[in-house]
Amino acid sequence: MKELFQEILTIENVYGAIYVSAEGKVLFSQTTSDSGKELEAVDWPSLFAAFGDAKEVTMVYDYRRIYVRRAHNGYVLVLMGLVVPVSMVRLSCDALLPTLEKQGASKGLMRFFRRK
Amino acid sequence: MVRDILIMDLDESFLTQAIEKLDEYSDTFLVLVSTGEDDAKAELAKRPVSVAVVGLTGPSGGPGSPLLDFLAESYPEMPVMLLADASDAEAKKQVQKRGLAGLMERPVDLHQMARKITSLLKKEADAGSLRGVSPGMFLQMIEMEERSCVIRMENEKKSLLGILFFRNGELLDARVKDLEGVEAAYEIFSWDEVALSIQSGCPPKDGRIHMNAQAVLLEAMRRKDESGKRPAAAAAESLSDHDDDLSEGDLTEGAAVSLGDYEELSDEDLVAGEQPAQEAEEAPVQANTADAIRDRLDREIGGKCGLETIGEDASVQSFVILAEKLGALFDAGNFKLGYFDNDSGADRIVVPGNPATVVSLKPRCPKNRIIQVLTT
Known about the structure:
The structure holds two protein chains of two kinds.
Chain A: H1 2-9, E1 14-21, E2 26-31, H2 36-41, H3 44-51, E3 54-61, E4 65-71, E5 74-80, H4 86-105
Antiparallel strand pairs in A: 1-2, 1-5, 3-4, 4-5
Helix pairs in contact in A: 1-4
Chain B: E1 3-8, H1 12-22, E2 29-34, H2 37-46, E3 51-54, H3 65-74, E4 80-85, H4 89-98, E5 102-106, H5 110-122, E6 129-133, H6 135-145, E7 149-155, E8 160-167, E9 170-176, E10 179-180, H7 181-189, E11 194-200, H8 213-242, H9 248-251, H10 278-281, H11 290-300, E12 307-312, H12 317-329, E13 335-342, E14 347-351, E15 357-361, H13 367-375
Parallel strand pairs in B: 1-2, 1-3, 3-4, 4-5
Antiparallel strand pairs in B: 6-11, 7-8, 7-11, 8-9, 9-10, 12-15, 13-14, 14-15
């Protein structure tokens, strides 16, 4: 999973990326802050419900921005500085989402069966 | 209305750089990119593109002739610029032979390209522009004067751009959304008021509309009446079930709540604007009430911000609390706003406050500028 997020993580002023399933399970997390356990405690389902049918949400804070992108079965969150090439982040997410979707689809027993 | 330009090139890193660098011109034009001919055709079919920049190469290594043929045939009014190496003699020949808008040599100076695009966009209104006119009335004028021109009509309420082609006063073709020919003309002539720009001359184009302009106009009006009667009749039926005392005036559709004019770009605005004025930066910090936010947007961006509605809304308070908690995990500081980019419908901004304020924006609003204004 880490390789998939590598491109986003190497963008200037990006401090981390988190991938959370729609049910609220943290599937991937790499951030500069030590927030691993606390991430599990976030009420992700309620947050995602608040996003409604938004494709992208940008949350702006005093010192950081969090860019959220709806994925096939969850959300990708990118932790960024205030000055960041957002188009680049968006483009990297465009490239990432189909790969995440494929990964999700090939889990479970179905991966042993050949597709017609 | 902010125009769309399309850059077609195989080099993804160049496209990424172009998106980034040209973002500062987003008040004037938005950049669409494609890495292949099919993608480019799909983008062009979705929306009106004002300028195309082609860096794709054909089988011989020169400019993609089939694509240039396609653009000349299907979008003759759209200026096309080529991207090529300085040594590419074939590209230079193509520019001259085809009468293209220009050649940008690699490595491309993106700011120079932006200036060129801006000047091409200005030509869309080289014969003038008007605001608040009825398309029907204008059609009759063009017909009487027997003018040859391309007219771009902007429906500000629906954020749509329609294009009409006239040769010697005769309506040749029309295009709006994914409609072409007479169906597109019916749609455009059903609009109440438009802002329009007139470009002199009509590119070589086969006529798709084989009807008298008056007949097109009458049919558009008939269709508009038909579509207007249906909802009105339904509303009347629904209301009569509940309140027999309503007057006829009550049965007409109420005006939509509008809290800001969505003014389109004037010719002067097509030149990239300067950074925010000093006095704006020195403005005192205001409370996050709906009125204060509206004032701030009005003062710093004006009607171009695309404000649709604004109001206080306690139902988004749970989102604000969750966003604050999430920010605290990363020492991000105070939560300042959440921008919701919706697939369909208006974009929304949630600004924390007591209660929180929700701003609804028309599609294609200057998103980055609005975020900047509301967070500084």
